[in-house]
Structure formats: C-alpha cells, structure tokens
Amino acid sequence: MTSKPYGSTLPWSEPTWYTGRPSPYYKESHIKLRDAVRKWCEENITPKTEGWVEQGRVDPAIYLECAKAGLLVPIASGKSIPKEWSHYPIIGGIKPEEWDGFHDFVLWDELVRSGGIASLFVGLTVGAPPLLRFASKQLQDKIFPEILSGEKRICLAVTEPAAGSDVRNLTTTAEKTADGKHYIVNGEKKWITNGMFSDYFMTAVRTGGLGAEGISMLLIPRSEGVRTRPVPVIAGPLSSTTYVIFEDVKVPAEYLIGSEGNGFAQTMVNFNHERLWIVFQALRGCRTAIHDAMQWALKREAFGKTLIEQPVVRYKFGNMGRQIDALQAWTEQIVYELEHLSDKEAARKLGGTTALMKVEAGLVSKYVAEECLKIMGGLGLTKTGQGSRIEAFYRSVPGLVVPGGSEDVMIDLGVREALKISRQAEKAKSKL
Ligand SMILES: Cc1cc2nc3c(=O)[nH]c(=O)nc-3n(C[C@H](O)[C@H](O)[C@H](O)COP(=O)(O)OP(=O)(O)OC[C@H]3O[C@@H](n4cnc5c(N)ncnc54)[C@H](O)[C@@H]3O)c2cc1C
C-alpha cells in the first residue's frame, strides 16, 4: 500500500514506506501501530530519556505504564500474539489475529527511536519466547499473568564466564533431588541483560552429560541462593548487564521448559528472533544518526559553505543511505519469509541467513556511526547537545556486534547453514 509521508522528510531518516513510497508489506494496521507507538513514546518516553541517562537507570515505574499501554504482550510474543491473550491491552488497539512479523518490526523500530526505553525490554523479548513456545500450559498460566501485567520481569541467562559462543560447553548444573520434585542449581552466568531487576531467569543448565544433549532450559525464580551484581559495559548502565550466581538454588521440577535435553535446540531457535530484533535496532539506530548528521550538515558552515555543499560530505551520505535501505529491504524480505514458513522450516531455512543479516547490520551500523560522528566534528564525541544521539549510537554498536552471536561466529554459521541447505536440496532433487 501507499501511505502519506510521515515523520522526518530528511533522506533515509525514516523507512522508505513512511515516505509515501508503495510497499507490499504494510497495511492499515501497521500504520495504526506506528502512529500509536510514536505518539505514546513522544509523550511518555522522549521527555524522560535524558534524565534516565543521567541517573544511569530507567525509572522502574515506567514498566507498569508500559503494561497498561499494551506494550508488554506484543514484546513477549514476537511475530504472533496468542489468541488467549486477547484480554490484555495491545498498543494501537491491534487485535491478536492481525498481529504479524511486520507489526513486530514496526513496534521495535519506534521503540528504539524513542531512546533508552528499549533496553528495558531486552529480558522480556529474549526470555519470554521459550516460555511461550516450549513450556507446559500450567507453567505458562502461572508465570505469564505476572510478567504481562508488568508486576514481575524475566531475562535470558545462557552465557557463562567460560562459555559464550560455545553454548554446548556450558557448566551450570541442575541436579534432580532424590524425590524428583526439585532441581538444585549451581553455576554462574555473565552479561545477562536486565538481570539486576529480573524476578525470573530463563536459564540454560546442564541436566545431563557433556555436549548439547545434556542441556535443558529451566525457569529459575529469584529466590534463596540467587545473587546478582552489575557488570559495567561500554553502552552504559540502562540495560542493566548483570553477573548472576546460583548457589544451591532449589527450583521446582515443573519449572523445566519442555523436556530434559532440549535446551540447546530451544536456545538456537530463540536466537533467530533475537538476531532479527538486533537488526531492527541497528536500522533505527542508523536512521536516527543519519537524521541528526543531515540536519547538522545542512546548517553547519566550514570553508565558506555548508557541509552538505562539500562533495565529500555528500559522498558519505550516499554511501550510508544505500547501505541502510539495502539492509531494510533484506530485513523485510526475511520478515516476509518468516510469515510464510512454519516455525520448523523457518528455523531450517532462515537460521544461517538471519545470522548473516545480523552481521550486515553490525557492519552497516559501524560504518554509519563513524561517518555520522565525523560529520558532526567535535559534537560527535560529546554526550550532550546535537551530537549526543550519534555519540550514544557509536558506543552502542559493539552491543549489536557481539551479543546474540558474535560477528565471526555468525559468518561461519551462515556459510555452514547455506552449505547444509544446498546438500539437502541436492538430496531432495535426486529423489524426484
Ligand atoms: C552487553 C551484552 C549483553 C549480553 N546479554 C546477554 C543476555 O541477556 N543473555 C545471555 O545469555 N548472554 C548475553 N550476552 C553474552 C553474549 O551473547 C556473548 O558475549 C557472546 O555470545 C560472545 O560470547 P563470549 O563473550 O564468551 O565470547 P567468546 O565465545 O569467547 O568469543 C570471543 C571471540 O572469539 C571469536 N570466536 C569464538 N568462537 C569462534 C568461532 N567458532 N569461529 C570464529 N570466531 C570465533 C569471535 O571473534 C568472538 O567474538 C551479552 C553480552 C554483552 C556484551
């Protein structure tokens, strides 16, 4: 469909479909969602972001407001909202049956645009899907009302000090008690986003022998034996990166997600949405940066003319713009494909390409952040004023490159998956 121009008219500052260009992907409900999220964020978030950055924390009260505004249900769901959740509010009045992967994209695009608030939801967006997809109905019925009302919070705890990319070799143990009623958990997790304020830790643990088959997913409530402390990271404290220690933590056996030994597969499936969501963040980060740099280049004079009148500066914008729009087009293609494949087929066919797209998002972000920073001159290194969003984006780029699968590991995975699909296709052809 074609919609009226919306938002900034500066080149590449908004997705192409916001500018009045036609798109096959977006319908009325996407426009409705976009308008509602932008309005809500501009009224409730943008005026507060600077204060949060100064304090080094997002005001926890905002989380309950987010629940009331209808943000938590779509964030916990991803690309489709369960029918049973229709009694919860959904922002923009979108119905669960209308919700698709493009709504997910629009939602995140607008949340990231508003600044600090997005970091508040990282735990929910990566921690809730295993509960939704793989947990027993009883566990879902107990936990979801707490976390969808904003009363309690969840995060995902996979990485350990000695096992990050190498998930297969994690060492946190969960041993069943003799009566089979509980697991006793011991181990440490590192760099857990939102961990400091989480009530539940969706945790990858070892319940069996060595390797992937020995890994399970266990929901660990904050309880006796769970200790957390902040880990300061480059992008700042708003996302509350955390070191978690489990010492003889007693967890009811029914908090196991699915069955024992499936934790590795569940973690890998979860990574696909996490990687896509990192691409969503990268795209809006690039657009915000190019917007601020363009605004500056149009008015800043040096050597008797504005920066934009310098061919070298225009060359930078052209190179940024083509990369951002190419990444947007690739992302939309993958979101479309996800809509048209079963979960199983999507995991098989799109895992590798999503990993490569995440790599591309990191590379485009690195390029855009650095070019925008240079265009701003000294302002690009300054935490306040007209360059502040570019300075913050520049610092946030490593957070798009390493978490959720580090660049080198993702490239290697992308190639291995592409070859696997090729071999499977050859086999299928030979059977015809
Ligand atoms: C800010 C932040 C937030 C995070 N949030 C979470 C979270 O919420 N939950 C969670 O569970 N984890 C989280 N993580 C952890 C994150 O997913 C890991 O840091 C990441 O997977 C890399 O693991 P690692 O740090 O152990 O690096 P390693 O696995 O030690 O790898 C280090 C480097 O070695 C190279 N390398 C390693 N293996 C290979 C290979 N096979 N092929 C090629 N090169 C390779 C790569 O260059 C890689 O970057 C977060 C991390 C950070 C920094």
From TrEMBL:
Its Gene Ontology molecular function terms?
acyl-CoA dehydrogenase activity; flavin adenine dinucleotide binding
Acyl-CoA dehydrogenase/oxidase C-terminal domain span: 261-417
| Keyword terms of this UniProt record | FAD, Flavoprotein, Oxidoreductase
Cofactor(s) essential for the protein: FAD
SUPFAM superfamilies for this protein: Acyl-CoA dehydrogenase C-terminal domain-like, Acyl-CoA dehydrogenase NM domain-like
Q: Ranges for the Acyl-CoA dehydrogenase/oxidase N-terminal domain?
A: 28-151
Asked if the keyword Flavoprotein belongs to this entry, the reply reads yes
Q: Name one GO cellular component term.
A: cytoplasm
Q: Which family does it belong to?
A: Belongs to the acyl-CoA dehydrogenase family.
Q: What is this protein called?
A: Acyl-CoA dehydrogenase-like protein
